[in-house]
Amino acid sequence: MRKHNAANERVKRAYITFLKQTTGKDEATLDKVLSALLQFEESTRFKPFKRFHVDQAGKFKDHLAKAKNSRTGKPLSPSTIDATLRIVKAFFLWLAGQSGFKSVLSYKDAEYFNNNAKQARIAHTQRDIPFPTMAQARHAFQAMPNATDFDKRDKALFAFFMLTGIRDGAAASLRLKHINLEEGYVFQDAREVKTKNSKTIDTWFFPVDDAYRDCFEEWVRYLRMEKMFGNADALFPKPRMANTGAGFKAVGLSRDAYASAAKLNEAIRGAFAAVQLHEFTPHSFRKTLGQHMNEMCKTPEQMKAWSMNLGHENIATTISAYMPVSRDRQRDLMRDMGDSEAA
After folding, report:
1. Residue 34 burial by CB count (10 A; 0-12/13-18/19+): exposed, middle or buried?
2. What's the predicted TM-score (pTM) here?
3. What is the pLDDT of residues 256-301, one digit of tens each?
4. Residue 294 CB: number of other CB atoms within 10 A?
5. Domains of the chain
6. What is the DSSP letter of 312?
């Protein structure tokens, strides 16, 4: 089967350049755009964009409905399908205004990529995302081994996520120079750290179990004093590979950071799986800390500081995203308020 169309590739490159120059999209977002466009091309067997017909939009929707997630093997989620359709629609809206396409495409053609109303509602319905309780996190953390360099790294990584609620991409790109142990402070410098929306974030350690801070501080001291790591070296380095005669194997810590957060995610999920718990991700710790905010903060000012620590400018973002209230919890809260009023 045909794998690409040269004319389409040139158009896609122009579109990516447009997005970079006008919207400042990061590489991860641009990769999602290219992936969505590739899926569309696959559904048309790589026909030229200039030969677009609205029937192709319908066939593309059918293609997505039958497609499988490459990692899980399960059907694509409604939210993934909705996001993919929106990406392709935006591309055709742009394409309709480009020289050479104005005569064959109209802006109305892009509307055929709209999701149907029912599927769009399903895609945007807010769902409860599982997250660990403080007790579950502590249980998984205590059970983690601490013998090898990689054990130490992964355990310190777990502790760091609990201390900071940092996003995994940012954690993967951190260097030792971004850590101030005396202040309990992390400088997420957007010039060097892969933060969301390239935003510089000041984060001080959250008031959680001292065991997390002890573990993380021990790790940083180990890197500096035992491994002689410097400021420019990775906080959570990838393995150093060498040919041992039986093939390439990890023989220690390199000084380089991982290119992505995949291995960091794997380490955290594995820690929970090892104690027969749900495989929570690093990002779920942000909800754990959101719930902890509800217990620790006594004033609006404290809540604001907590929210800023998570990188949110608006406290409403923290409350909406990381302080979920289930239906049962909503019922209990309302009943409790009624009981206290009656008393």
Report:
1. middle
2. 0.71
3. 999 999 999 999 999 999 999 999 999 999 999 998 998 899 998 9
4. 12
5. 6-124 (1.10.150), 136-281 (1.10.443.10)
6. -
